[in-house]
Amino acid sequence: MAYQPDRSQYPQKKADGTLDIDLASGKYLKLWQGPQHPGITGNMAIELTVCGDEVVEGKTHVGYLHRGFEKLMERRTFMQCFPIVCRICVPEPDFNEYCYAAAVEELAGLEVPELAHWIRTLILEMGRINSYLMYLGGQAGAFGQGVIGQWTTYVRDLMLDRFEELTGARIYHMFIIPGGVRDNLPEGFAARMETTLQEIESTLGDVERVMFHNAVFKKRAVGVGIIAPELLDSYGITGPNARAAGVAKDVRKDQPYLVYPELDFEAVTGKDSDIYTRADVRRRDLLLSIDLIRQILVKMPKSGAVMTKLPNVLHWKIPRGETYIRGECSRGEYGYYLVTDGSGYPRRVNVRGPSYTHSIALFERLVVNANISDVAALLVSLHTYPPEIER
Amino acid sequence: MSEASIERLKSKTTLKDILEVATEFERTARDFYAALAPKVQKNLRYLVQELAEEEQRHYDLFTQMAERDDLEQQLQTEVERPVNDHKFSDCIHLPDLGEQPDDQAVLQYALKREHAAMEQYHSLAQSTEPGAIHDLFLYLANEETKHKNELEKVYYETVHSGGV
Amino acid sequence: MVMQALYDTLKPRFLLGEFTKQRDDLAFITVEAVRLHALLRHLRDQEGFTHLVLLTAVDWLEDGQFQLTYLLNNRAKRQDVGLRVLIARDNATMESIHDLWAAAATYQRELREMFGIDFPDSPRLHEDFILEGWQDIPPYRRDFDTLKYAQENYRDRPGRETRDPAQHMKQQLYGED
Amino acid sequence: MSIRDVLSPFTAWKNLFRDPVTIADPLNERPGAARYRGFHKNDMDKCIGCGTCETICQNGAIDMLPVSGVPAKLGDSGLRPRIDYGRCCWCALCVDVCMTGSLTMSNEYKWVESNPDLFRFTPGVDKKHWDNAELGYQRHAEKHLTPGERVEMPELEPAARIGSFTEIVDGYSIEQAKLEADRCVSCGLCIATCPAHMAIPDYIKAVRDGDYERGVQLLYETNPFSQVCGRVCTHRCEDSCAARHEGDPIAIRWLKRHIIDQVPQEKVLELIGKPAAPTGKKVAIIGAGPAGLTAAFDLARKGHAVTVFEAQAAAGGMTRYGIPEYRLPYDALDKDIAVITAMGVDIQYNQRVGTDIAMQQLQSDYDAVMLAIGLHQGRSTRIPGSDHPQVRKAVDLLRQITTGEKIEAPKSMVVIGGGNVAMDIARSMARLQLQQHGEIRVTLTALEDKAHFLADPVEIKESLEEQINILDSRGPQACVIDDSGKLLGLKTWKVLSIFDAERRFAPQYDESDEQIHEGEMVVEAIGQMADVSLLGNELTEKLEWNRGRIQIDSNGRTSENWLWSAGDCVKGPDVINAVADGHRVAISIDSVFTQQEAKS
Predict the structure, then answer these.
(1) Could you read off the pLDDT of C9-65 as tens digits, one per residue?
(2) Between chain D's N and C termini, which has fewer beta carbons within 10 Å?
């Protein structure tokens, strides 16, 4: 029989809607998870108020890695911004490069060569695979299954090798540059990519058997952390968090960009909207990315220009304007809102990371009444990356 | 046919004879330039003075050599008369550059002389056995070549200066 | 075209300002602060713009104004509309929209902290968000100088110097000339 | 949940016997990928120290510093980038933007070191083991961050221009000029090369900003001959342009012209303002060419009374009497001169010093005298037959064309010379031939081979377009004259080589390759000299000379303390050099006046 907490001791709401928590009463305990905690994805902290095993209030604290990128960009030229945007998201930096580049190109009126669109799409899907692999390790880890993380870290490393040979770097690729991409694929890339994809598929088979067909994981993840579909709009929920709730929200399909219109796929959805379903949606989305990469490598042009002609980037000015560019990253809708004022510097850059709403408003709502032991798994299941919150 | 001309037709000559001609060559040139210097405009005088100094240096070399006892034996050696010997000795004869020759005329004359001397010393170096005299001719040939090259550069810069 | 039609329909009712078509699927519309809430509600409930993509501010320091940008998405129609609201920069205040989108409270909290814009009644508005214990002016305002701040608060590692090529050549090649 | 969910996780045990996948010795066993962005390399032979890498570095990780053994020289600042790896983010924008392709990256990414200061070093200077690494990031073969191709200058097509002396070059439109100005990386390497050290990057920026009034002010700070220099400057600056290494140099000359073209004459006068109050000092300047008039302009602005004595009927010197109208229209030149005379400079035309007025007179009547007489006497090859009346000198002919003298164009002619003057006379005579005879028959013979022509490449290109028959490597031997005394043409030998190994002039001929080029006229355009006869014997003897030219100190002052000299007659032919010289002399004369004032 399921655990039933005794809620008779729970705090009352005050007139303004906040909880009337009197710590001196001894009924409640403040419990911090993070900023250093194995169950926290990156540098953030959760301030929990618990009553017994149950969370009565949770507050997300960020700011541990605020570097003020949006502000820093205001004093960098349009090309100088290119190397710093990737740092806004470590595990999946390429969306920053793509969204920024596309926003600059749109406001500057640049046409990007077709080959560059294909390579950009390829890179974004490669990044998605890496991000999911990290997530799977983290999600399993939140339930104490360390071995999954070891496997996924290994195959992620293989994908980093592909990134390295394609872009010249493993983590911060700095390859999708305003105007196009820096180079074409290296010789023999497709074959090596296929080997890597097969290795990842094989590992995913193991992951499925050990993590998903696992009584413990199911007991901890099924029916836990449910996001009601009606919350989606109110909390700005996108990506797998939304798709696991049965809504096929996927920017790649909804408002296709790059070469997605040329690729054959359907958005991956689930219906139970719990931790398990979200994990499963991500696992299947990862398999979709593998398929998309294979499609891309077959369909893409083999040669051609990779970059368009740029004006002299040392004093590149862009006319006044504003735009928003979005893409579907592993966590949901990633977007750049860029405002230009005719000068050589961005007037304003605002980065919309999906974690912004997922790990604050949404998480703070979901964590209420959760058991302490589920908090880490719940947070991981929202797949949040703190740097995109505080940019 | 003058005596000098007959002399030139001989295929063999002694080093001594050759040296005498060469010394004369340098001396007459030096005197010519020295006499010319005050006559030309001051703006060209550097050119003529430099030429006189150069010839003086060569003249000194020859006279010093002629005075060396150790070379007396060698100077009697017969050597093959250089092919361009006549051009060389022609240059002993002084040109008529007029009262006030300009830089171009002086340079053209000097160039012709240096060229002849260069060829002369070069052939002589080739037809002498290794030793002090051989080295001397080599040195002189080299000197004259350098000087000629310098003059050609001066000529190009002076006469062709405004070509741009 | 669709966006233009929507604009034309709503213009008289909400006294809309400038319309800027950025792409087929993205337009920006200027709207007065007092009409924003009603317009947002209408767009959300009647026009299918149910997704609040982002809410942020742009500092037009020279004009003494903040621009608040409310970006909405209509997934079914594949449309985005950005609403621009210009408010006075001094004592900047704007009506909260947390009642329309719960997530808006977070955006408003950040805007209060980073730009100093007040959103009365927005939940937890005055709780520190990213900057714990910040004493200076709100740092995303244009008059906050990040370089100056860095120079005052951090120390460069010694041993750095540089020369301007033209100045160096002048010194080396033609001096006082 | 099923029994499968209980058993399935045990499949993890299959990995029990799997080999570890970790790399045992990553420091040695794992080289970076072929494109890896690792530690920098810098090719010292290619680097020009332009500092563009420093400019683009958004981390402020690059310093430009002098390096021992790398002196500053024209086109190379002598500075080299030092990189602070405490700041570098390995983005390689410095590699992408590098103007010469000297800066690259190795694939080396591992370096263990306990002293953090060692991670700040100058690639290519501080030797590193990856300096010869073959792998590592290279910029894409096509350079993307700065445009390499010059905006083409619109000009008259050959067929449209050959019939007249109309100016060939149209000048850039505002849009074209902006695009061309956009290519400049503002490194400033050109400034040292420009004899007048014009503020080139700044006035190019003025073009980018569309601020032409500021542009004109910048031009006049260093050069009152922008109409002239904007058209016919030798533009050595462009040889030092960083952009030339992997593309076309910036069209600095055309941008200068563009600025001055945009601002009306009245506005120019307003921008440069009125001269200072009169000082009572009087200066005589001999020769109204660029050197003389530049000095006149500067001195007049200081309030000194300047009189210029000009032997010809109009001012401009060689820019008027040497340069054909299709390259420099007289009205453009007149605009520059009008600004100068507007400063109160008095030009006495048709006054030949030495004939109409004596040097001694000037010495006694003025506080200072400046000699800027240019190089107006043509040199002759003095080959046999060169004293024939139909063997002419280019400078004389060009002067006659300017003064409007009627010239009987020969039906065929030969030009000797491979410099700009040779091209000028060939092209001018071609126009006259076409006007008078309906066809062009001009042969131009040059000692130099095509690669060593002294003429501007554009001049050669345009000459060829205008049907000039250019023969390179031909050494003139004689002007061929028939028994009746009629000039038949020019005899030449093939030049095998013109320079020796040390690049010294040492022509070698192939006498067997002899040609006779038909011509009723032969024009010698090999060089010019100054006519210093105006000095007279006494002054000639008094003055110190330096290898045929009047000796001047670094301020342009001669050994006679009342006399200065400047321009082509002391420095060789070059308009911008003459302008720079004029400034120098003006500063010197003015400072002498100041000292005199202080004493009295």
Answers:
(1) 999 999 999 999 999 999 999 999 999 999 999 999 999 999 999 999 999 999 999
(2) C
**φ/ψ bin of D479: left (φ > 0), alpha (ψ from -120 to 50), beta (otherwise):** beta
**Token pair belonging to D539:** 């002054």
Residue D40 has pLDDT above 90, yes or no: yes
Give me the interface pTM, i.e. the ipTM.
Answer: 0.84
Is the pLDDT at D206 greater than 90? The verdict is yes
In this complex, whether B and C touch, counting 3 or more CB pairs under 8 angstroms, is no
Q: pLDDT (tens digit, 9 = 90+) per residue, C109-143? A: 999 999 999 999 999 999 999 998 898 999 999 99
Whether the Cβ atoms of residue D481 and residue D385 lie closer than 8 Å to each other: yes
Q: Are strands D282-286 and D368-371 parallel, antiparallel or unpaired?
A: parallel
State chain A's mean pLDDT as an integer.
92
What is the residue range of A106's domain? 78-316
Band of the pLDDT at D179, cuts 50, 70, 90? Answer: very high
CB C119 within 8 A of CB C111: yes
How close does chain D come to B158, measured CA to CA in Å?
8
Q: Go through D491-505 and write b for each residue having 16 or more CB atoms within 10 A of its CB, e for each that does not.
A: bbbbbeebbeeeeeb
Question: Do A362 and C103 make contact, defined as CB atoms within 8 angstroms?
Answer: yes
Residue B43 forms contact with D (CB below 8 Å):
yes
- In this predicted structure, the answer to whether residue B42 has a pLDDT above a threshold of 80 is yes
Q: What is the pLDDT of residues A286-300, one digit of tens each?
A: 999 999 999 999 999
Name the average pLDDT for chain D.
93
Where are the strands (E) in chain A, listed by range? 29-33, 45-51, 54-61, 176-177, 180-181, 321-329, 332-340, 346-352
Q: Residue D469: which residues within 8 A CB-CB, separation 6 or more?
A: D441, D442, D443, D444
Q: What is the pLDDT of residues D337-349, one digit of tens each?
A: 999 999 999 999 9
Residue type at A55 in one-letter notation: V
- Cβ separation A167–D35 shorter than 8 A: yes
Q: Is D241 helix (H, G, I), strand (E, B) or coil?
A: coil
In a domain, D255, yes or no: yes
Residue D430 tokens read as 């071609």
Q: Which fold is adopted by the domain C2-174?
A: Beta Polymerase; domain 2 (3.30.460)
Asked whether A294 and A191 are in contact (CB, 8 A), the reply is no
Final residue before a domain boundary, out of D476, D510, D528: D528
User: For chain B, what's the residue count?
Assistant: 164
pLDDT at A230 over 50: yes
Which pair of structure tokens corresponds to residue D95?
Answer: 């590699």
Residue D499 pLDDT > 80, yes or no?
Answer: no
The domain boundary, picked from D93, D121, D149, lies at: D121
Distance from CA of D460 to the nearest CA of B (A): 12
Q: Average pLDDT, stretch A46-56?
A: 90
Q: What is the pLDDT of residue B164?
A: 38
Boundaries of domain holding D164:
158-270
The H or E element that residue D346 is part of is strand D346-348
- CA A193 to CA A12: how far, in whole Å? 57
Q: Could you tell me if A253 lies within 8 Å of chain C, comparing CB atoms?
A: no
**Beta-carbon contacts of residue D121 (< 8 Å; ≥ 6 apart):** D82, D83, D128
Is residue D145 less than 8 Å (CB to CB) from chain C? no
What per-residue confidence (pLDDT) applies to B135?
79
By the CB < 8 Å criterion, does A14 face chain D? no
Subunits in contact with chain A (3 or more CB pairs closer than 8 Å): C, D
pTM of this structure: 0.88
List C-alpha distances in Å: D241 to D43, D90, D154, D198, D232.
18, 27, 22, 14, 18
Does D79 lie at the interface with C, CB-CB under 8 angstroms?
yes
Cβ contacts of C46 within 8 Å, gap of 6 or more? none
Same domain, D191 and D249: yes
Closest CB to D93: pick one of A79, A214, A218.
A79
